[in-house]
């Protein structure tokens, strides 16, 4: 616990603090940055929370999210931090343009990714946590931060989203206990779930329908393709098909799910999911991608989606022993 | 707590116990019956768990579920119980053919439905519980039952399913604490979620695609129709569209979701869901149905689905002040 106590000293001794999350922000990232920002502000410090990317609109209704700044806004403010806290990033390139200022500052890294490269001066990295927001919750408690309904709700967001609303294998007893404590403090699970999950567009549904109509199933394997024309005809972008591959995995008796997505024209991304035993990260790595054993992906430029599908299926069938 | 102590005495004093759940069993029902059966068997009693209906196949892999008996099997066994415990049923007609034997026995009712009619000799009814399985968990603990991985997992099933995997408004701090305790005892949230939720058939997906293609949206309201021909062409029955109305509700800015389902020919069921303020149970009641404020339904014999849709939409638009 030496690292943790040096982290506490560093935060306590600093007066001007910049807290940075990652680009392509998800619920855990947003929740972590905002919860620590609100926490440290409570200690009377000058604190800015920053994410150098567009915040998905469904998160903007949660407390504190609208106050997040990007890199330009940060430069405008001429804010000179005593310390930069980087949250939920396994490597420095994840912070977007903030990467430019990292070398000039003392960096604290707080992250739950097993792949974290310890690029901070102080690193609190612990992959037994289901979410970085869960680490922030513990940190805030050690710092004596008082939780009200607003802080509890935004902090709950990270615990819920990074565990797939308590359905993934990282749903431990400790995660559920922390979630219970946040609910006791005022977090509203139904409000969080409804705000994040019940925000689909009709166009997204039409795209899903296109994906479903093209699903093919063969023993233990299911796959589909979305071409650039599909996206165009539904008025969608690649952001709209986020999570679609999980729908394919939800098919009975399917071990591996593959979704090939072309957006824009000739840029092809492949999402791979497995249920129990196939390590899809190995398949993705063979194709220059990466990820986890149960969720991985890879991308291709100047490619044809059907050709990519063919190559991926060959590798998946091999991995499945067929 | 007088009722609770008389419940404990009754169970402790009885040697031959029949535990009955409801027809059209859901996760909470199955979880409750099996968990109490396994619990009381541990006390050396002769206990049978019964549900007089088909068990949805995805539940059969959970511990103890295959041992559930129906009414015919019960008659075959010539089992004469000292007490009948009825779980998760708001009225006696919910037990299927077991209703015939209720008058001859001492009945204990354990239920979390606010609409429960207290039809037992001893009634433990408490709608502050999110699930009847949560009541069974507390009861088993009072009875000193020891939890292993199997019992923890099947008991967890009810807590998870009746709260929509911790997303509905009944997700309290106590529910999450109990879930955490069951996980500590060996329950596997990911296994439970994956087993129950990742068991869709391709035919179900094709039916979903048909529903999506027919969704219509108008300010705050979204609806769709599945005709008998749709079910036939996808090789589906009405069981396959269970939960589809929630997909419609997941649309952004939609307050009320309506799904009209015709199965079989000219038998029409309407599912109504709302997000925040429209009481759909009132609409359902006007049409001879019932339910809760946010989830209700009604059924029609010898009806045309499009005509039914028209009538329902008129009522919904009225309720929405339009």
Q: What attributes characterize this protein structure?
A:
homodimer; 322 residues; alpha/beta; inorganic pyrophosphatase (n-terminal core); Diaminopimelate Epimerase, Chain A, domain 1; six-stranded mixed beta sheet; five-stranded parallel beta sheet; 40% helix; 17% strand
List the helices and strands and how they pair.
2 copies of one chain form a homodimer.
Chain A: H1 2-13, E1 16-20, H2 27-42, E2 46-50, H3 71-77, E3 83-87, E4 107-111, E5 122-125, H4 132-142, H5 149-162, H6 173-184, H7 189-197, H8 202-213, E6 216-218, E7 221-226, H9 228-234, H10 244-249, E8 256-262, E9 268-274, H11 280-286, E10 290-291, E11 295-300, H12 305-319
Parallel strand pairs in A: 1-2, 1-3, 3-4, 4-5, 7-8
Antiparallel strand pairs in A: 6-7, 8-9, 9-11, 10-11
Helix pairs in contact in A: 2-4, 2-5, 4-5, 5-6
Domain DDH (chains A, B): 16-158
Protein name (chains A, B): Phosphoesterase RecJ domain protein
Domain DHHA1 (chains A, B): 233-320
CATH superfamily placement of the largest domain in chain A:
inorganic pyrophosphatase (n-terminal core)
* Mean pLDDT, all residues of chain A: 96
- CATH class type of the largest domain in chain A: Alpha Beta
> How much helicity do the residues of chain A have?
25-40%
Could you give the order of the helices and strands of chain A? HEHEHEEEHHHHHEEHHEEHEEH
Beta-strand proportion of chain A: 15-25%
This entry's quaternary arrangement is: homodimer
